[in-house]
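Here is the promised in-class demo. Please do not try to memorize the tokens; focus on the logic of going from shape to residues.
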């Protein structure tokens, strides 16, 4: 949230309701966001976001152009859009073919939605991981609308004491994202549930 520049009163759109996206929603509120909108296509993840993070939700499969819908929903675009999806998002047929031919490094759909959903002069925080090759990157639109892109891996070590204090002071509770606690021998089952998006799986903890 600090890298994304979320400020009190901001409207924040968060793409993806997997563990990172769900935690990003919590921290958006903690940084004073006035409105937080979560985007995903898995119903149980959207319901989880509504229940535990009290956010508005959008199922991108219910809209022909999710980016434009979000722009309209936020009256001109969000101040900050945080892409927690990355290259593991749903691929278009062309992206699927391109990835198979090593011409494309996975999906770009999350970033394209972010580009459309952010306001002029707004910020796109790329938290999801992307590869090195992408076709049809919307560079011109980003330049024309003065969009600020921020990305990079989190410097986790300096944040550890800060996060520890937030936990011990009860200002943040991440435990709801843990949906499965399994013995190590059941690791294949846990990985399968997460990969196939079954059993309402969000995060699996394995106990030796």
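The designed amino acids, position by position:
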């Amino acid at each position: 949230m600090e890298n994304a520049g979320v400020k009190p009163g901001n409207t924040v759109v968060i793409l993806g309701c997997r563990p990172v996206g769900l935690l990003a929603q919590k921290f958006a509120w903690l940084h004073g966001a006035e409105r937080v909108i979560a985007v995903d296509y898995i119903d149980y993840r959207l319901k989880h976001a509504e229940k535990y993070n009290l956010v508005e939700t959008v199922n991108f499969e219910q809209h022909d152009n999710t980016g434009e819908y979000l722009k309209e929903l936020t009256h001109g675009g969000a101040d900050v859009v945080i892409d927690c999806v990355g290259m593991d998002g749903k691929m278009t047929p062309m992206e699927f073919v391109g990835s198979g031919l090593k011409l494309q490094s996975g999906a770009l759909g999350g970033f394209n939605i972010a580009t459309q959903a952010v306001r002029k002069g707004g910020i796109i925080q790329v938290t999801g991981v992307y590869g090195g090759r992408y076709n049809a990157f919307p560079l011109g639109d980003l330049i024309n609308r003065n969009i600020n892109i921020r990305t990079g891996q989190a410097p986790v070590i300096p944040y550890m004491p800060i996060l520890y204090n937030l936990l011990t002071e009860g200002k943040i509770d991440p435990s709801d994202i843990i949906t499965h606690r399994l013995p190590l021998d059941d690791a294949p089952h846990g990985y399968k549930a997460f990969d196939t998006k079954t059993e309402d799986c969000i995060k699996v903890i394995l106990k030796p």
